[in-house]
UniProtKB/TrEMBL annotation:
Residues 235-261 are annotated as: Disordered. Keywords: Membrane, Transmembrane, Transmembrane helix. InterPro entries: Pept_C14_caspase, VWF_A, vWFA_dom_sf. SUPFAM superfamilies: vWA-like (SSF53300). This is VWFA domain-containing protein. It comes from Streptomyces labedae. The chain crosses the membrane at residues 304-327. PROSITE patterns: VWFA. Residues 243-254 have a biased composition (Low complexity). Residues 685-866 form the VWFA domain.
C-alpha cells in the first residue's frame, strides 16, 4: 500500500533562553491540512493512507516514521515542515521536533532533533516501498542534498527541498501556509498527474514569479535530488517509476521534455538478473516442498515439481528480453548506471543563472553521456559573495576543508569546497594567487583565456536616453554620470554591492578613477539603505517604484539587458546601454581548484585523476560549441573580438560591437578599488543600545542572549572604529546607563566591560527617549562622511513607549538623521510588517532582525559593513 507521513512542527516547548529554538511557527500549523487535502484531491493518496503529526516530540515522530515506513509498499512520502538547523562545523541538517533545544560549546548538540542522515537511514532500512519521496520545508533544507549524495542505496529516493543550501527562509504570514508548501499544494491541484521533477521545476518558476527571496536577499530556489534519470509519478496515472532522460541531475536543472515510458520493475529485473531471480524462485519452491514433504518421498517429489518450473523461469526470462527488445527504442533503463562523479562549481552571484543553464545543457549532452546512456558527471552550481570567496581562498582554505568553530566556517557561509571556480574576472583569481597563504590547502589553476565577455554598462532609462546617447562610448564613467544628472536634476545612479558581486566592483573601478576621487564617486551612487546584492536584484528592485525606475540609471553587466532577469514580468522602463571607457568588463574564467588530501573525499571512491578528467571535459565543452551556444543565448560576447555571440538577440538598447571598451580588469586596480570602498569615510561609529529591562531576564544568558549577542558583533569593529554601549532601562536617572563610553576600544577591554557592568534591571525600558538621545549623540559626532550606525538589541516589548505620537517622533528623527538603525529583536515576530522596530529600521535605512534570521551572523555582517575589523 501507499503511505504518507506529514510532520509539521509549529509549536515548540523551548523558545526562550540561550539554548532555545528561534520561536514558534504559526504558518506551519496551516501546512498539514492544506497539503493533506491537495494530496487526496490529486489522487496521490487516499485520506486513510495519510498520517498527519502536528508538532510531535522526537520520540513520537521517530515511532511513527518507522511504522509508516514498514507499512509502505508502493509509494512512501515523508514531509517535514518546521525549524531546520545546521552545526557550525559540518553539512548535516537537523530537523527540529517539538522538544528541540541546542547545546553549544566546543561541539554543537541538537537534542530533540532528527538528523537527515538518520531519517534517510530509517526509511532505507525499514521500508520496502518501491518509491520514496522526501519533502523538506525548513531553513537550510538544501543542506540535505549532500547527505543524500553520500548514501549508496538512494536510487529509489527523490528529495525535494524548499530552498538551496545554507539559506534561511521566512515562514510568511501566520494566517496562511508557508510559501513553499502553499505553492506545492496549489501545483498538486493544477494537474491530474505530475512528477516530482515537474513539481520542482514549477516550484522554482513560481517562486521566481513571486520574487521570493531568502533571508540573505537572494533568489529563493527550491531544489531537487533524484538518481540520474529516475523520476516518480504523483497523482492519477500509473504509479510506476518513469524515466526522464533529460530530467534534473544533481544541479537541479530543468527537466526539459516530459518523462518517457519505462519498463515495469519486474520486466527490467528479469532482463538484468534472470539467473538471480531463477535462484530466488527455486529456493522458494524448495522451502515450500520441505514444509509439505515427509519421509523418503521428499527427494523425488522435489525433483518432479522442479522440472516444470525451470521452463517457466526460462520463459519468463525470455519474455523480459523480448519486451526489452520490443520497447527498447522507446525507453531506456538507467538503473544499471553507477552514480556519476559530482563536480562542485562555485561562481559569481550574477553568473549563477548562466552557469546553471550551461550545466543543465552539459549534463544531457553527448560529451557527458557514455555509450550505455549513463551520465559521466553530475554538476552542482552555487554562488557566494565575491569578496568572501577571495578571502576564503586566500586565507581560510584550512577552515574550509576542516571547519573548527562557529566564527570562521566557509562551508557554512559559502558552500562546499569547489572543484571549479568561475569568477567574473581573471583579476579575482590573480588576487588570490598574489596573496595566498603559503600553507594553503587549495591550489588554483586558472585558464589563460576567458570563456566570454560582457561589458559593465550604464543602463539609462528611456526617458533620459536622447541626451545621454550623444556619446555612447569613449568617455569616462564619471563624465557620463555628470552629463546625465546635468540633463535631469532628479536623475540618479545605482550600482550593486561591490563586496558581493564583481559587477559592482568593476563599476567601482570606473567610479573612483584615482584614489582622490573616491568621495566624489560614492556621492554619485549614494542611496538610502544598502545597495542591492547583485545586478539582477538591482534591475528587479527598481520597478517596485515607477518614479524611481523612470529616473535611475543602473551600472550592470550588459548580458542582463539581453537575457533579461527573473522578474521580467514586472513593468519596467526600457533602458539603453552606455559603454564607459574606464569600466572593465566581466571576463568569466575557468579555474580548477585542487584540495590537499582530497582523494576519495566521497563515498564513491573517485580519485583526483577522475575529478581532473571530469573538470577538463566540462571546461572543453564550455569553451566549445555547446558552451558558446548557451552563453550566446544569455547575451555574452566573444572574448576575442568583443562582438555578440548571437547578434540576432540584440535588443534595441545594446550595440553590436561598441568600441573602444576597457575589456579586462587588472589585479591591482580591483584590489585598490575594494580597499578604497571598504575604507571610504574612515573608521566607523556605532552606538549600541542594550535593552536591560526586567522583561529581558529570560533572554540574557548565553551566546544568544543580549550581552552575548553584543560581544559577537565586536569582531566587525577595529582599533580605529569608535563605539559605545548604553544599557536601556529607566532607573530614575534617565533612559539609559553608559556601560562603555564612546571612543576607541580594544576588543578584550570592551568585552570585559560588558561582562562586568551589563545586568538586568528591575525597571522598564523607554526606547523612545533612548533612541532620540542616540540620534542626538550621533549628530554631535559631526557629519564628516564616516559611516555610522545605531544598534538596538531588545526583546521588542515596548508597551506604550513606541505608539502614537512617540513612535511618530522617533520615525521622523530616524528619517532625518541619515543614521541607519539596525534592530535585533530577541524573539519571533518583532520584525513583522508594521511593527515599531521594523518601521524604525526601514525608515532609517537599516535592518530589522528577529528569530527568523540568524541574528548573530546577520548583526555581525551589518557591523562589518560599518567597521574596519579584521575578521
Amino acid at each position: 500500500m501507499d503511505r504518507a507521513l506529514l510532520i509539521g512542527v509549529s509549536d515548540y516547548r523551548f523558545t526562550k533562553g540561550p539554548h532555545a529554538v528561534p520561536g514558534k511557527l504559526p504558518a506551519v500549523e496551516k501546512n498539514l491540512p492544506v497539503l493533506r487535502e491537495a494530496l487526496v484531491r490529486a489522487g496521490v493518496f487516499t485520506d486513510g493512507e495519510i498520517t498527519s503529526l502536528p508538532s510531535p516530540d522526537f520520540a513520537e515522530a521517530a515511532q511513527e516514521l518507522q511504522r509508516v515506513a514498514r507499512e509502505a509498499r508502493g509509494l512512501l512520502l515523508v514531509y517535514f515542515a518546521g525549524h531546520g538547523a545546521i552545526p557550525s562545523g559540518g553539512d548535516e541538517l537537523y530537523l527540529q521536533l517539538r522538544d528541540a533545544h541546542v547545546l553549544a560549546g566546543e561541539h554543537t548538540v541538537f537534542n530533540g532533533a532528527v538528523s537527515f542522515s538518520d531519517l534517510m537511514g530509517t526509511v532505507l532500512v525499514t521500508s520496502r516501498a518501491d518509491r520514496i519521496v522526501v519533502i523538506l520545508d525548513c531553513c537550510f533544507a538544501g543542506n540535505a542534498a549532500r547527505v543524500w549524495e553520500h548514501f549508496e542505496d538512494k536510487r529509489r529516493v527523490g528529495l525535494l527541498m524548499s530552498v538551496q543550501a545554507n539559506h534561511r527562509i521566512d515562514a510568511g504570514d501566520p494566517g496562511t501556509p508557508t510559501p513553499f508548501t502553499e505553492n506545492l499544494a496549489e501545483l498538486l491541484g493544477e494537474e491530474d498527474g505530475t512528477t516530482v521533477s515537474r513539481l520542482a521545476t514549477r516550484l522554482r518558476e513560481r517562486m521566481a514569479e513571486q520574487k521570493r527571496r531568502t533571508m540573505r536577499k537572494e533568489a529563493w530556489e527550491p531544489q531537487l535530488r533524484a538518481d540520474a534519470g529516475a523520476d516518480v509519478q504523483l497523482g492519477e496515472g500509473p504509479q510506476l517509476p518513469v524515466l526522464a532522460p533529460d530530467g534534473p541531475g544533481p544541479s537541479g536543472a530543468d527537466p526539459g521534455p516530459g518523462p518517457r515510458p519505462r519498463l515495469p520493475v519486474w520486466v527490467a529485473a528479469s532482463w538484468r538478473r534472470p539467473r538471480a531471480l531463477a535462484a530466488k524462485w527455486s529456493r522458494a519452491w524448495r522451502r515450500k516442498l520441505s514444509r509439505t514433504d515427509r519421509g523418503g518421498g521428499k527427494r523425488s517429489s522435489r525433483r518432479i515439481l522442479l522440472r516444470p518450473a525451470l521452463p517457466v523461469l526460462l520463459a519468463l526470462g525470455l519474455l523480459g528480453v523480448g519486451l526489452y527488445l520490443l520497447l527498447g527504442p522507446f525507453s531506456r533503463d538507467d538503473t544499471h548506471c553507477a552514480p556519476p562523479l559530482e563536480l562542485r562549481v562555485l561562481t559569481d552571484p550574477d553568473l549563477e543563472k548562466t552557469f546553471r543553464t550551461a550545466a543543465a545543457a552539459y549534463l544531457t549532452s553527448d560529451a557527458n553521456t557514455t555509450d550505455a546512456g549513463c551520465r559521466r558527471t553530475g554538476i552542482t552550481v552555487y554562488s557566494a559573495g565575491s569578496s568572501d570567496v577571495v578571502d576564503a581562498l586566500r586565507r581560510r582554505t584550512d577552515a574550509w576543508q576542516e571547519p573548527e568553530g562557529a566564527e570562521v566556517n566557509p562551508q557554512r557561509d559559502i558552500g562546499p569546497q569547489p572543484d571549479v571556480w568561475i569568477p567574473a574576472s581573471r583579476a579575482e583569481a590573480d588576487r588570490v594567487l598574489e596573496e595566498q597563504d603559503t600553507d594553503a590547502v587549495a591550489e588554483l589553476e586558472p585558464e589563460e583565456s576567458p570563456l566570454a565577455h560582457s561589458p559593465v554598462v550604464l543602463a539609462v532609462p528611456e526617458r533620459l536616453a536622447p541626451e545621454a546617447l550623444n556619446d555612447i562610448t569613449g568617455r569616462p564613467l564619471t563624465e557620463m554620470i555628470d552629463a546625465l544628472t546635468g540633463h535631469a536634476d532628479d536623475a540618479a545612479v545605482r550600482r550593486p554591492d561591490p563586496e558581493f558581486t564583481d559587477s559592482g566592483l568593476l563599476a567601482t573601478v570606473g567610479l573612483y578613477g584615482d584614489p582622490a576621487s573616491v568621495a566624489q564617486g560614492e556621492r554619485m551612487v549614494r542611496q538610502q539603505g544598502p545597495p542591492s546584492p547583485t545586478a539582477g536584484d538591482l534591475l528587479c528592485d527598481l520597478p517596485d517604484d515607477d518614479a524611481v525606475d523612470d529616473r535611475t540609471a543602473a551600472l550592470v553587466p550588459e548580458f542582463l539587458l539581453v537575457s533579461g532577469v527573473d522578474c521580467e514580468d514586472n513593468t519596467r522602463t526600457p533602458r539603453w546601454a552606455l559603454y564607459p571607457a574606464d569600466v572593465p568588463g566581466m571576463d568569466p574564467v575557468f579555474v580548477r581548484v585542487r584540495w590537499d588530501d582530497a582523494d576519495g573525499d566521497d563515498d564513491s571512491g573517485d580519485d583526483e585523476t577522475d575529478r581532473d578528467a571530469a573538470a577538463a571535459a566540462f571546461r572543453d565543452w564550455l569553451a566549445g560549441a555547446g558552451g558558446r551556444e548557451v552563453l550566446a543565448r544569455q547575451g555574452f560576447r566573444d572574448p576575442g573580438d568583443g562582438e555578440l555571440f548571437a547578434p540576432g538577440r540584440k535588443p534595441d538598447g545594446v550595440k553590436f560591437a561598441p568600441s573602444p571598451l576597457d575589456e579586462s580588469a587588472g589585479r591591482d586596480e580591483m584590489e585598490q578599488a575594494l580597499s578604497a570602498y571598504q575604507a571610504y569615510g574612515g573608521p566607523g561609529r556605532v552606538l549600541f543600545l542594550l535593552d536591560s529591562s526586567g522583561s529581558m531576564a529570560d533572554l540574557w544568558q548565553g551566546p544568544s542572549g543580549g550581552p552575548g549577542l553584543l560581544r559577537q558583533t565586536l569582531g566587525g569593529l577595529g582599533a580605529e572604529d569608535e563605539y559605545g554601549v548604553w544599557a536601556v532601562a529607566d532607573t530614575g536617572d534617565g533612559p539609559y546607563e553608559t556601560l562603555l563610553g564612546f571612543g576607541r576600544h580594544g576588543r578584550k577591554d570592551a568585552e570585559e566591560a560588558v561582562d562586568e557592568r551589563a545586568r538586568v534591571r528591575d525597571a522598564s525600558a523607554d526606547p523612545h527617549a533612548a533612541l532620540l538621545a542616540a540620534f542626538d549623540e550621533m549628530e554631535d559626532r559631526g557629519d564628516d562622511g564616516r559611516p555610522q550606525m545605531v544598534v538596538h538589541i531588545t526583546d521588542g516589548q515596548h508597551g506604550e513607549y513606541l505608539t502614537g505620537g512617540r513612535l511618530r517622533e522617533v520615525l521622523d528623527r530616524a528619517g532625518a538623521s541619515e543614521v541607519p538603525v539596525t534592530v535585533a529583536v530577541l524573539g519571533s515576530g518583532g520584525c513583522d510588517e508594521g511593527r515599531p522596530d521594523q518601521r524604525i529600521a526601514e525608515v532609517s535605512g537599516g535592518r530589522c532582525l528577529d528569530a527568523g534570521d540568524d541574528v548573530g551572523a546577520a548583526l555581525h555582517d551589518e557591523i562589518a559593513r560599518i567597521g574596519t575589523g579584521d575578521d
